[in-house]
Amino acid sequence: MEIITSIEKMQKLSLKFKREGKKLGFIPTMGCLHEGHLSLVDLLVVKSDILILSIFVNPTQFVEGEDLEQYPRTFEEDVEKSKARGVDIIFAPKADEMYEFGFSTQISESNISNRLCGKSRPDHFNGVVTVCTKLFNICQPDFVSLGQKDAQQVAVLKKLVNDLNIPLSIEVGEIIREHDGLAMSSRNTYLNHDERKDALVLSKALDLAKSLVDSGCNKTNEIKEELGKLFKSVSCARVDYVEIVDSETMEFQRKVLSENSLLMLAVWINKVRLIDNRLL
């Protein structure tokens, strides 16, 4: 496995592979790899001749006051995990090369990005689509795998690829959970013992919603009302949003469920913001 930090070297190597007819798989990450990330590697390892994983804590997708400096960085462990899973290249550029002095271009998606996490974190998705466009141009992938846990991000990037005619296919991996149901996330490392237990309220909310649907409830407001009661029972939980949306467009469903209704959660457990979702 090779570690590449130079944008020029990575791009030239990717274009060389393309000329040779090789299929390139790509997983964009910010590091601190867990089984959720590694499951995305598994999605592409069988269909890619060369598998590239990027590790880049992207400063432009952190909004003011967020945890850019504290975001967990575990590069050596990430390298070992990636190598064991079949990654061929780790692309780990430096921020001052990705955004060199005078950088002034930004890409934005103006529909899906404006609600949910986009409302709570202004400019977050502008940073996501800009860095991913750069990474796609550098790494030239045929396949990209993304995690369902970041459902809105998946929808935004699918829109980006479709709108700008970027020649790649997006594969979406299912949410990987801890044994107790908590969705795997790099930010779970911020939780202390008590907060970790309280964080299970997110997965409990998903289960409650599914049980309500299975019992015949199809009114979105009734489901959200019951979930609100559950979150209020956890003193350290503060709801950012509880919404039921169309899984492709992220448009709010205000009345009744449809066949692709997706429950989206963003909840603060004290100072840690966690997200989760489930197709209803």
Please write out the topology.
Blueprint: E1 2-4, H1 7-19, E2 24-29, H2 35-45, E3 50-55, H3 75-85, E4 89-91, H4 95-98, H5 117-120, H6 124-139, E5 143-147, H7 151-163, E6 169-173, H8 193-198, H9 201-214, H10 220-232, E7 237-246, E8 261-269, E9 272-279
Parallel strand pairs: 1-4, 2-3, 2-5, 3-4, 5-6
Antiparallel strand pairs: 7-8, 8-9
Helix pairs in contact: 6-7, 9-10
Describe the protein's architecture and organization.
This protein is α/β, with parallel strands linked by helices. 38% of the residues lie in helices and 20% in strands. It has 10 helices and 9 strands. The strands form 2 sheets. Strands 1-4-3-2-5-6 form a 6-stranded parallel β-sheet, sandwiched between helices. Strand 5 (143-147), helix 7 and strand 6 form a beta-alpha-beta unit. Helix 6 (124-139) crosses helix 7 and helix 9 runs antiparallel to helix 10. The radius of gyration is 19 Å and the shape is globular. It starts with a strand and ends with a strand.
Q: Which assembly state applies to the chains in this document?
A: single chain
Total beta-strand segments: 9
Number of helices: 10
What's the order of the H and E elements? EHEHEHEHHHEHEHHHEEE
Q: In this structure, how is the largest beta sheet organized?
A: 6 strands, parallel
